[in-house]
Specification:
Elements lengths: L1 H20 L1
Length: 22
């Protein structure tokens, strides 16, 4: 479902991106 994909994308933005740039 699209909503679950949006949740995964939000989690990626919050956790993965700061981890990459830290």
């Amino acid at each position: 479902m699209l909503l679950s994909h949006m949740c995964l994308r939000l989690l990626w933005l919050v956790f993965v991106k700061p981890g990459l740039y830290h």
